């Protein structure tokens, strides 16, 4: 190692020690290029590289839409493409208004940091996404975790807070479909609790958008047209693009435009990408055969995985819980060498002792490729 390199490590010795500790626990992350059959992406409907989105991109270029916005949306960065997308999104997701942000992480951070006020209570599912946690760290509201998918735990938290003198508004925060377990939140029960306690229900539809609900509107679609519902729809998963849409009553969208720092002080998303997102929503709405094909693929995979003791989730996300970090990563590496892009997921992304292979089913693979993957997985799971 060079003297210069040694000096850098000395200056950042604390950081190096933390990296060394992660490596010793088989939790050190590194970037790697995509390779092999897609069993790890969130491109559930195969739209990211589809001719439909290529055509939308070509059309946007022909229309002269800029790639970059040039500024925040409150300055010169606002573009007609953003506004057209928001109008169409509000109509499609049956919300009064919508706001487009650059990523799902930015949308969650903006939402939780801005809307709940001092004196309010946020009760969130213990497995909610990291971006929601980061937003809540910026919030002035009290934040309490509820047992995963336990509606009674949410109600108990709100009732206990009220008995203790809580007088603000309660906010209930969940994902409709959880990214690491593939299970669904009890949305109808949570909506009833929100109604009973004058609370607001926030539903992150990241992994359900495009895949579930009428015209791909998500699992919360049955709850729409209520004043106490906010939904978040990411555009970089089943929609195959980038960004995220917050759908909410107009007053809350206007409040975020005026108070959400991640929105106010960020360069606006690409108008060209906004144009593509708008077309992606149209593709999802008018091509139900994509969802039908994915559903058939999920059922096919579940039948093959059942003899391996892998429980069905009823969704395109199927966790194979291994437990140990080192065994999980060794199995993932073995499957990758055989041509299957399956990634190992370790703590802190998942709870300690639940390291897993996250199988993601997309229209980027065929039934025969799923069958080959399950055969390889069975071999990897067999005792040495």
Structure description:
This protein has 384 residues and is of the alpha/beta class. The protein has two domains: 29-44 and 316-381, Aspartate Aminotransferase, domain 1 (Alpha-Beta Complex), CATH 3.90.1150; 51-286, 3-Layer(aba) Sandwich (Aspartate Aminotransferase, domain 2). Helices cover 43% and strands 15% of the residues. It has helices spanning 3-11, 13-24, 51-62, 80-92, 104-114, 130-138, 151-163, 187-196, 250-259, 261-264, 271-286, 288-305, 325-337, 367-381; strands at 37-38, 97-101, 121-125, 142-146, 170-175, 200-204, 229-234, 244-248, 317-323, 340-341, 343-345, 355-360. The strands form three sheets. A seven-stranded mixed β-sheet has the order 2-8-7-6-5-3-4, with helices on both faces. Helix 8 links the parallel strand 5 and strand 6. Helix 1 crosses helix 2 (13-24), helix 3 crosses helix 11 and helix 5 runs parallel beside helix 6 (130-138).
SSE order and pairing:
Layout: H1 3-11, H2 13-24, E1 37-38, H3 51-62, H4 80-92, E2 97-101, H5 104-114, E3 121-125, H6 130-138, E4 142-146, H7 151-163, E5 170-175, H8 187-196, E6 200-204, E7 229-234, E8 244-248, H9 250-259, H10 261-264, H11 271-286, H12 288-305, E9 317-323, H13 325-337, E10 340-341, E11 343-345, E12 355-360, H14 367-381
Parallel strand pairs: 1-10, 3-4, 3-5, 5-6, 6-7
Antiparallel strand pairs: 2-8, 7-8, 9-12, 11-12
């Amino acid at each position: 190692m060079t003297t210069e390199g040694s000096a850098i490590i000395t200056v950042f010795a604390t950081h190096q020690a933390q990296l060394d500790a992660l490596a010793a626990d088989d939790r050190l992350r590194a970037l790697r290029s995509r390779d092999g059959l897609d069993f790890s992406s969130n491109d559930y409907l195969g739209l990211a590289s589809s001719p439909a989105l290529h055509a939308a991109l070509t059309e946007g270029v022909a229309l002269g839409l800029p790639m970059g916005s040039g500024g925040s949306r409150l300055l010169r960065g606002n573009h007609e493409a953003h506004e057209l997308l928001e109008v169409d999104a509000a109509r499609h997701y049956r919300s009064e208004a919508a706001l487009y942000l650059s990523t799902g992480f930015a949308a969650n951070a903006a939402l939780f940091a801005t809307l709940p006020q001092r004196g309010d209570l946020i009760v969130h599912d213990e497995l909610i996404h990291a971006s929601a946690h980061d937003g809540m760290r910026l919030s002035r509201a009290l934040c309490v975790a509820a047992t995963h998918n336990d509606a009674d735990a949410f109600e108990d938290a709100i009732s206990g807070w009220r008995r203790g003198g809580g007088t603000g508004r309660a906010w209930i925060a969940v994902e409709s479909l959880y990214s690491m377990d593939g299970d669904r939140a009890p949305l109808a029960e949570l909506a009833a609790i929100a109604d009973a306690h004058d609370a607001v229900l926030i539903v992150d539809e990241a992994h359900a958008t495009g895949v579930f609900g009428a015209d791909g509107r998500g699992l919360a679609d049955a709850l729409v047209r209520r004043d106490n519902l906010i939904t978040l729809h990411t555009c970089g998963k089943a929609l195959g693009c980038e960004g995220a849409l917050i759908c909410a009553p107009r007053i809350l969208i206007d409040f975020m435009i005026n108070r959400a720092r991640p929105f106010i002080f960020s360069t606006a998303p690409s108008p060209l990408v906004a144009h593509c997102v708008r077309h992606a929503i149209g593709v999802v709405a008018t091509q139900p055969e994509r969802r039908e094909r994915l559903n058939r693929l999920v059922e096919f995979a579940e039948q093959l995985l059942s003899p391996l003791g892998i429980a069905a989730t009823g969704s395109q996300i199927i966790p194979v819980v291994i437990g140990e970090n080192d065994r999980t990563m060794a199995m993932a590496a073995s499957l990758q060498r055989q041509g299957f892009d399956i990634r190992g997921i370790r703590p802190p992304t998942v709870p300690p002792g639940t390291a897993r292979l996250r199988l993601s089913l997309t229209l980027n693979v065929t039934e025969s490729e799923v069958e080959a993957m399950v055969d390889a997985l069975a071999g990897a799971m067999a005792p040495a």
